[in-house]
Amino acid sequence: MKIDILTIFPNMFDGAFSESIIKRAIEDNKIEINIINFRDYTTDPHNKVDDTPYGGGAGMVLSCQPIFDCVESLKTKDSKVILLTPAGIPYKQKLAYKLSEEKHLIIICGHYEGFDERIASLADYEISIGDYVLTGGEIPAMAIVDSITRLLPGVINEESHREDSFKQDNNRYLLDYPTYTKPADFRGMKVPEVLLSGHHENIRKYREEESLKRTKERRPDLLEVENEED
Ligand code: ADE
User: Fold this and answer.
1) Contact residues for 147 (Cβ-Cβ < 8 A; gap 6+)
2) Which residue from 108, 105, 86, 205 is spatially nearest to 151, judged by alpha carbons?
3) Nearest protein Cα to ligand 1, atom 9
4) Which of 31, 71, 103, 167 lies at 20 to 30 Å from 4 by C-alpha?
């Protein structure tokens, strides 16, 4: 898979993909990530990429021309374009799985007070990573790239993501069960007996129950069977 990230703050990505699993996925050619400064595409003599909003109001708005030209120079028939905005559809694991099957993603990081609405016409998906407003799409882009990369074949062992929080179970996504490591007793806090028992079937049942219990307590919304399409 190839991912092109369009930003005017390329330095924000320094380090983001140079550690751990993502680093290895890049080295193993499972993923190619390009950070592209769309300011390089502006035709403005002063290198501007934004302007004041029609109708008045605070702040600057990203202009169409640099982003259209940049996307059009990268796009092929295999590309899907993602625009990051707090007004987008909520990003969920289900969409991470779907995007991980694409060949080429172009991710546009919005900034400042927003972007010219006509930029949305380039996008296959407008995505929000949560109900809060960040200063731009760079951190959301990192989160999305991270969540997709770990799902690519051969990046981590498949059992790990089948057992994840948000694993799919009868079309539901459940939170992960609690896990423990040594020692069995830490300051009086004991590891549940069943996990020390070596009884695989009981352990499986315990984990399933804990997963459901946690989801009921913390995220009952996840238990409503999802019928909606992405
Ligand atoms: N840009 C600013 N806030 C955002 C969010 N929550 N999700 C996606 N893009 C954003």
Assistant:
1) 91, 93, 96
2) 105
3) 85
4) 167
The reply to whether 150 belongs to the active site is yes
CATH architecture of 2-149: 3-Layer(aba) Sandwich (3.40)
Selected from 2.60.120.10, 1.10.1270.20, 2.40.370.10, 3.40.50.300, the CATH number assigned to the domain covering 163-227 reads: 1.10.1270.20
Span 5-9, mean pLDDT?
97
pTM above 0.85, yes or no: yes
Q: How confident is the model at residue 42 (pLDDT cuts 50, 70, 90)?
A: very high
- Tell me the pLDDT tens digit for each residue of 70-107: 999 999 999 999 999 999 999 999 999 999 999 999 99
Tens-digit pLDDT profile for residues 63-79: 999 999 999 999 999 99
Q: Among 69, 146, 164, 169, which one carries the catalytic annotation? A: 164
Helix spans in 100-154 (H):
138-149
Q: Identify whether 45 is a catalytic site residue.
A: no
Q: Which of 85, 107, 113, 144 to mutate to test the pocket of ligand 1 (most atoms within 8 A of CB)?
A: 85
Q: Letter for the amino acid at 65?
A: Q
Q: Where are the domains of the chain?
A: 2-149, 163-227
